[in-house]
Every structure is written in C-alpha cells, then in structure tokens.
Amino acid sequence: MNESLLLGCGNLGRIILDGFLSNSMKISVYEKNQKIQKTLKKLNKRNLEIIDNLDGLKDKTFKYILLCVKPIDSLSLIKEINTKISTKFIFVSFVAGLETKKISETLKKNKVIRMMPNILVEVGSSATGVYTKSPSKIFKKEISNNFSFFGFLEWLKEEEKMNFYTALYGGGPAYIFYFLEILNKISCKNGFSKKRSQLMVESLLHGTSKLIKNNSQNFSDIIEKVTSKGGTTEKAIEFMKKEKTYEKINNGIRKASVRSKNITKLLNLEKL
C-alpha cells in the first residue's frame, strides 16, 4: 500500500496507527496535541512521519487519507485538507455519524469510504463496518485487501445501517468488558481476590472463545449444551430471562444508535 495520512491520533487513531506500523506500512500522522506528538516521536519508526502543520502537505501524494477525530472537529479539518492537497486520494472516515454525502460536498473528486472498526483492530480481530457509494467490485476488493489487517470487514449496502453497526459492533468490546467486570465484581464479593477473580474471568473468556471457534453449533445450542435440566445454570438463565435482560441490552444498543443518528443530524446542519 502507498503512503497514507492519518488525521488525528487519539484512542482509536493510535490503535489504527499501530496496525499500520506493525504491518510495515508507511504512514504520516497529523495531530495537534503536542503531548501525543512527543509520544509518537519517541516511537522512532522509519515508516512513520509526524506532521504538525498541514501546509507541508502540498507536495505530498497519499493513497489514503484517514480521518479519525471527534465529530465536532471533522468538518473543519476536511475543508482544510481540501485546500492543502490537490492530488487525488481515497478518503476514509472513522468518524461516528459523519455521512459520506456530507464529506463529498467538499471532496467532490475523491472517493469516500466510511468505516466503523472497534478497538479489536489492535489484535487484528475487529468486525469493521464499511460503506461506500462506489459500486465497483474491484475497488471494494482493493479496500478489503489493503485493510484486511483490521480483521473482518462487513460491507454495508445502506449507509443508514452504520448507525446500528456503530452502536453494536463499534461499542461491542466495551459491552463485553462491562459484563466481564460484573462477573469479576461478583467473584470478589464472594471471597476471591481481585487478582484471582480476573484470572478466572479471563479463563472463562478465553475458553469460550476457543469453544466457539472449535464448534459449528450456534450460540443457543451451546447454551442448551451447558445448561443441565433443573441445574444451577438453568436457574440463573431463567432469572435473567425473567428480568428481561435481552430487552435491557437491546434498549441500550438502541440508545447508542439514536445517539449516532443525532450526531449525523448535527453534522448535516453545519455548512462547509
């Protein structure tokens, strides 16, 4: 892959950057935060260039320009980039709620892609939602190949689906960690140390992941397999169902999806 430019290197930006660096891909990073700049410079990587001024980009060519900033900062940065780089590039946005048509209002001559990965990019296992208006299968295959180090790429037919994708899969690791933390607290409350509890909960997660990989059954079948009739696990599952755990989690995902839609509405009101 030719050189890429990453705009913004916060939490997700840094994970994406690490993915590029670990795959020996050449990348430049523009980041305003001086503390983050210093941290990046300490990496001392040959395939990494730190840019602190966009004026220096006029003579540069990039295959991909990756936008990874907060929604509130996204539109002004897109406008600035459009005045600094005259060559063609593929623009990839990781910004929640920012629609491709809004980006294309400024970047008229460039192809625009919207991606929603999660923090599991760090271990090459993100379920990443991808959308573009381009109907080209060759173009989509190129993107799939070049970003395969993210993990699994799911091409969405409708951009509107990105709101749900952001809510469930973008935030998915946090929900799993939240549930693991609940198990950890319950374990500690019942007399196990915090350290031992975490080790045992991690063992549960690791074992469950291996079982899923080695088993062709769906989740419901596996639950039935480990839930003995009249046993302790069945009692816990019955209680969770009675307490409408599914409905509560579903409502939480819906809240996140609505938030994504509201961000879109706010961004669409802004003039470029």
How many domains, as an integer? 2
CATH architecture of the largest domain: 3-Layer(aba) Sandwich
Q: In percent, how much strand structure appears in the residues?
A: 5-15%
Kindly identify the CATH topology of the largest domain.
Answer: Rossmann fold
Fourth CATH level, the homologous superfamily of the largest domain = NAD(P)-binding Rossmann-like Domain
User: What is the averaged pLDDT score?
Assistant: 93
Radius of gyration: 22 Å
The top level CATH class name of the largest domain: Alpha Beta
Number of helices: 11
In N-to-C order, the SSE pattern is: EHEHEEHEHEEHEHHHHHH
Count of DSSP strands: 8
| Lateral strand order in the biggest sheet | 3-2-1-4-5-6-7-8
Query: How would you characterize the largest beta sheet?
Result: 8 strands, mixed
Q: What is the overall shape?
A: elongated
Which residues form runs of ≥5 with pLDDT under 50?
Answer: none
What structural class results from the helix and strand content?
alpha/beta
Q: What distance lies between the first and last C-alpha atoms, to the nearest angstrom?
A: 31 Å
Helix content: 40-55%
What would you note in describing this structure?
There is one protein chain. With 272 residues, the chain is of the alpha/beta class. It has helices at 11-22, 34-41, 71-84, 100-104, 137-146, 161-170, 172-189, 194-213, 219-226, 232-242, 245-269, and strands at residues 4-7, 27-30, 48-51, 64-67, 90-93, 111-116, 126-132, 151-155. The chain folds into two domains: 4-158, Rossmann fold; 172-253, ProC C-terminal domain-like fold (Orthogonal Bundle). 52% of the residues lie in helices and 14% in strands. It has an eight-stranded mixed β-sheet, with helices on both faces. The chain is elongated. The two termini are 31 Å apart. The relative contact order is 0.10. The mean pLDDT is 93.
